[in-house]
Amino acid sequence: MSRADHMDVAAYALGVLDPQDAERFEEHLAGCWACAAELETMVPVVGLLAGIDGESMAALEQTHTDPALLDRTLHAVRLDRRRNRMRQLLVAAAAVVVVGGLTGIGFAGILGDNGSGAPLAEPTATVAVTPPSSVPADPNDPNVGGNEQDGEKHNAVDPSTGVTTTMWLTEREFGTRIDFQLTRLPGPRTCRLVVVRKNNTSEALSTWSVPGGGYGTSTNQPALQLSASTSAGRDDIAKIQVQSVDVNGVATPLVTIADL
Question: What is the mean pLDDT of residues 102-111?
Answer without folding.
Answer: 46
